[in-house]
Each structure stands twice: as C-alpha cells, then as structure tokens.
C-alpha cells in the first residue's frame, strides 16, 4: 500500500480511500445520473477502489489481450472455495452454470420451472427489478409481504403458495431491509415450498456482506431445499457490478433442471468479468473483512446521525449489506420523500414506492460511502425535512 504524500500510511479500509473529487470522476450511473451538487446514495454501489488482486488480474488480462469469451469451471471452483471457508457450503461445479448477472440468471432459472403466464411470488418491500424482469418474461408477480418486523412472514407465504404459484424468489440477505434470514425462517420457507410444490430461487448476491451480529445461511444448505436454486456473484461485495458475471447453483434435486439451461445462456458473462470475480472470491478475503469493519462503522454512524438530524425517521439497523431502509412517514413528506430529499436537500436516495407493498413513505439509502460524505448527506436530509 503506497504511503500518503505526507508520509503517513493511509487507512486500509476501502471506505476511507477515495475523496469526493475522485468519485465524481467516475463515469457510471451512481455519480453521473444527477447534477454535481447532488450527493448520490441511491444505487447499490460502494464508493471504494477495486481490491488489489482484482485490479492486477484485470490489468494482466488486458496486457495479454485476454479479452475473448468466458469458459471453464474456474468461477465455480472459486465460489466453492469461498463458500466452504465462509459458510461450510460446498458448491459442486457440476451443479453450476455461469450466467451474465443475477437478474439474467434469475429469469432463466424461473423459465426452467415456470411457463408463460405462471405466477412467481416475491416478498415486498423488495428489490424493484424483480417485478420488471419477471413481468417482461411473461410472468405474473404475486406478493407475500414481510411482517412488521421486516422478516419473512410464514402466514403470508402460506397464503400465497396455496394459490398455486410456480416459484418464489427469495432475496437473501433481503434488499432493501438488510434482514438476514435465520436458519429457522429458511427451514419454514422450505417446508411450505415443499408442501405446495413451489420452486425457490434464492438471490444471494449480498451474502458476503453480512455484518457482525448476524450469520448468513445459504438456502441450499437448509433441509428441504434440495429442489431450489441459488444465484451468487462477486458484484456487490467487491464493487464489480460493471464486470458482468454470476453463478447459478442447483440443489441436488434441481440438477436435472439446470442441465436444461440453454447453452447460449453461458455466453452472457464477460470474460473480464469472470476473471475479476474469480480474483475476488479467491484472493480478497482480507480486503472484504476490512470492508465489513468499515460498513459496521458506517452502520453505527448512520444510526447516530439519524438520531441527531432525523429523530422521527425509523430505521432498523441492517444485519447485512450496506442498504438502510428508512421509514419517513412521520415526517409527513407524502408518499415520495425521496423526491423531497432530492429537491430540497440535493441528496439522491431511492424512492420506497418502487419496492412494492409497504414501500410508500420510505426511502432506501446506500451507506457504503466515505463517512464524511455520509455525515453531510444526513445533515442535508435533516434540513430538507425541516429538522
């Protein structure tokens, strides 16, 4: 790690490494969607530099002109090594398939177990693209909302499953609430899915980002989940959303279904993306652990800032990820407080209404940003709310 100009060693935490000036030079959606006076805490991206091993792997590939098509089982082997070490979850390569990204993989897996016009259940408030991608694939979307504590609601799931849907999309850890589902909650989901013949596809992209105090349980390790699928990727934990690659994993009872995945689906991942994701899963454990310490710090910082500047906003500290779900209804800013925060405070957060039932009056805030920027953003939100 290079020294700072003053001779000191910079903080190793990725969240402390970049300035606002450096971040505004980025050309992706997060920092370019809004005018330069807006602080962007809306999209699920982190304001961190690439881990060294990932940057080196990409640099070496470019130097070699290694920019062809992705192939092989290297991605599956890297995920297996990481999952065994972190979660005691073996991921056999023969029960995996590379896909372009989580959402592309989700649609392709649903197509293996559902036909046009079939129903897929989600648990709102939940990641908005679930609705758009599934409907665009010719599927109907039904809801089994989370309970008031932001957790899976067994009664709501049972009621939805009794109506005969083909599949259920599990978001684990949950976006936007940061809920980390427990082994008991997942086992009950598996029991209900088995009883009603519902196939489960688990989006586990935020799994490496579970924070201190919680434990991630891979859905495919739960008794009764043998016919389910999982989707994993390095995109969120190592800031690789623009380096497209993900891995679909089948439970033992779903391997035959995964074998029916069209061969052309494997053409979607970027070769450079696969190279980057392999490096992340294989060589960036220390970087990830340091990042998690920083995210834990930002989680506490955000709680304190909200108490000071927005005391009427309710927010359960997220158990995983870097997304905070803010209940702004007591501010009386209407169903779209995000619009007020952008217009009055020049802070971009994601409007809760996009997340389905239970989202009105809420916003999602991504706190994976340098602490000074997070503090300034919450101060602006407080002023915008009249606090």
Commentary on this structure:
Strand 5, helix 8 and strand 6 form a beta-alpha-beta unit. It is built from 13 helices and twelve strands. With 387 residues, it is α/β, with parallel strands linked by helices.
Judging from the principal axes of the Cα atoms, what is the shape?
Answer: globular
Element string (H = helix, E = strand):
HHEHHEHEHEHEHEEEHHHEHEEEH
Distance between the termini: 42 Å
Low-confidence runs of at least 5 consecutive residues: 1-9
| Helical percentage | 25-40%
Order of strands side by side in the largest beta sheet?
2-8-7-6-5-3-4
Question: Helix/strand-derived class?
Answer: alpha/beta
Overall mean pLDDT stands at 96
Number of beta-strand segments: 12
Radius of gyration over C-alpha positions, nearest whole angstrom: 21 Å
User: Quick one: biggest sheet?
Assistant: 7 strands, mixed
- The number of helical segments is 13
- Percentage of residues in DSSP E strands: 5-15%
Question: Would you spell out the secondary-structure blueprint of this structure?
Answer:
Elements: H1 20-23, H2 29-32, E1 39-40, H3 52-64, H4 74-87, E2 96-99, H5 102-113, E3 119-122, H6 129-136, E4 140-143, H7 154-161, E5 167-171, H8 183-196, E6 199-203, E7 229-232, E8 246-250, H9 255-258, H10 271-283, H11 285-309, E9 323-327, H12 337-345, E10 347-348, E11 350-351, E12 362-366, H13 371-384
Helix pairs in contact: 3-10, 4-10, 7-8, 11-13, 12-13
Q: Could you give a short description of this structure?
A:
By secondary structure, the chain is an alpha/beta fold.
